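Take a record.
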Amino acid sequence: MAWSQTGITAGIGAAVAAARLLRLDATRLQYAIEIALSQAAGFRVMHATMVSSLMPAQGAQTGLRAALLAEHGFTASPAALEGRYGFLEVFAETAHMATLTDGLGKRFELLRNTYKPYP
């Protein structure tokens, strides 16, 4: 896989966080996600360079911008995530939507993180 997961997904997470902080309704939250999806980018070839730390920062900026645009009525395709040529089709050989949505709001993967025992 040649793309960087951080570069591809960070903006989406940031869009959800920003939309929640802005108290956007469900429709505008969806637009924020879709707007962020349209800006996903990141290549693994950039790892171990100065750009490596830029990818999550760019994701945060992307997410915030997406939520602010959605707050002000900017829209996007409702098929951006699951549709033909959408995010899942482009970045996954076989999309598993249940993996993304099962336990949503109840299971937090961040809580499963731990210290790396060795470099």
In short: The CA atoms of residues 32 and 69 lie 7 Å apart. Residues 54-71 form the longest helix (18 residues).
